[in-house]
Description:
The complex is a heterodimer of chains A (307) and B (293). The relative contact order of chain A is 0.11. Chain A has 307 residues and is mainly α. In chain A, 75% of the residues lie in helices and 0% in strands. Chain A is globular. Chain A has helices at 2-16, 18-41, 54-57, 64-70, 73-93, 95-106, 110-121, 128-138, 145-152, 164-192, 196-204, 209-234, 241-247, 253-256, 259-269, 273-302. Chain B has one domain (70-293): MetI-like (MetI-like fold, Orthogonal Bundle), CATH 1.10.3720.10. Chain B has 15 helices and no strands. Chain B has helices at residues 9-40, 44-48, 62-68, 71-103, 110-122, 127-136, 143-149, 154-165, 169-177, 182-193, 195-211, 214-219, 228-240, 242-251, 256-288. Chain B is globular, with a radius of gyration of 25 Å. At the A-B interface, helix 1, helix 2, helix 6, helix 7 and helix 8 of A face helix 1, helix 4, helix 5, helix 6 and helix 10 of B.
Amino acid sequence: MEGESRLQRFFHHVRRDWQIYLMLLPTIVWFIVFLYKPMYGLQIAFKDYSIFRGVANSPWIGFEHFEHLFSDDQFIRAFWNTIKISALNLIFGFPAPIILALMFNEILHATYKKTAQTIVYLPHFISSVIIAGIVITAFSPSVGIVNTVLGWFGIDSIYFLTKPEWFRPIFVGTGIWQEAGFGSIVFLAAIAGVNPSLYESAVVDGANRWQMMWKITIPSILPTILIMLIIRIGNVMEVSFELIILLYQPATYSTADVVNTFVYRQGLQSGQYDFAAAAGLFNAVVAFVLVMITNTLSRRYTRTSLW
Amino acid sequence: MMNWNLYSRGDKFFAIVVSVLVGMFTAATLYPFIYIAAISFSSGFAAQAGKVVFTPIDSTIEAYKYIVFQREFWISYRNTFIYTIGGTMMSLLFIIPGAYALSRPQLFGRRFLNLFIAFTMWFNAGLIPFYMNMRDLNLLDSMFGIILAFAVNAFNIILLRNFFEAIPQSFEEAARMDGANDFQVLWKVFIPLSKPAIATITLFCIVSRWNGFFWAMVLLQSEEKIPLQVFLRHTLAKLSDDDEFAITQLEAAYSAETVTAAIIVCSVIPVLLVYPWIQKYFEKGILLGGVKE
């Protein structure tokens, strides 16, 4: 009975405000077709999928793919590589934009500051293929500027991109080069929001700029830092695999292969859809749980939730 | 408060050190672009010998000559424009009305619908189911498929919805008094008032379309349909295939490296041209979608 009245209420609403429902319809249909329908297709992670039988008619096999996954050395390695690369990104990549924003805040010369900002924001807008092209060229054994400079010091040329030990430093460094500038915008906005009277009274107390940075600016932007940190931790499973696909090669898989590149190779290149979908599902579930946990923490400690 | 004349000697020293450090980081950001540009105008020999540091060595435009005679280069360049313009228009067509509807308080099931949209930010099916879905929809190797399948994302809708929600009711009421319906309210009141937010979303769309590469690589097979980024990727793949270019570089004044560099320059120039215009908006725009209390 109650359901019926709800339905009636719904139709009453649609009749009255039909225009807004019409405006919403394409978006809702798009989300169903392009984002929710694939979630239905995720069931192949628990099936012995064959392209001829289709998603619905392939037989269920339970957790068999996951059992294979967790005994697959390559997958385990990809999982830990994901964590390690993310950890490096966090340790080196996270403080970079904060430090940059704090430094921008100390620059008095307006034109100098504006020019520097314009330049450091730029790499954010460059595609990963171009970034990869630059990296491959710069680190190439014959052409590359890096080896040219090493040559000046009498160091033999190194084929960096074939060396597993060099992959992560290059990848993380490239990430900092590309994103530190753009990432500083959020922190600069937070710094702009600090109450000026705090600085004024500090000046009266005879504080210098260095002390003001530590005693006023940093504590004031701490909530923003915390929120950005929480977002970063929530996104630990999301490393920019596009760039990895462009930069890695079999010689560097041992340090470069992450879950998403593993999924790409197993699924899209080798056609093991069901097995790769299982790996992708595992990744998505871990990512989802992380986001939920970090958001709850954020709500509790900073009274700001991300939604 | 920040006045050079009031600075103590220590403060001045600190400011100078910081300025130098920022200058170094800025130079380091800029350098790879200069380096690539220098390589693109150098001869293949000079590049191969690792002589290029700041300026072109044995200046030549051979690499550019090589690419302008490649049919795929022009086709992919044209395609990138089609994807960027078509894709951005498609995005706005979905996002603006969708965000308007979601911002309406009278929308039935509004909480559920907003969650329905936002959920996709936290959980998505992943590469394989998405690919299979595109295959089932018959959108493999389809330009329209690329334009449609990446038209909407939850973040942009939520960003614009938040902006719409912040518009004071009085604007809308005035229009309603004049008998405006929802389409008219959106067109005549909300869109004009939301120009900065719409500009920001437009820019996000343009940038992501211009740079889009992964799915274009996976979904498109025909040479006729690939965008510039995928063409560049093909060239890069040749680059790591040393032997193939070993022959040409002995005979020609260009090499795989100088050609790659030239394509990079051609791909970055349009970004540089619109960049000043972009910059006006993104600093504000990035904060629009920011954290909501």
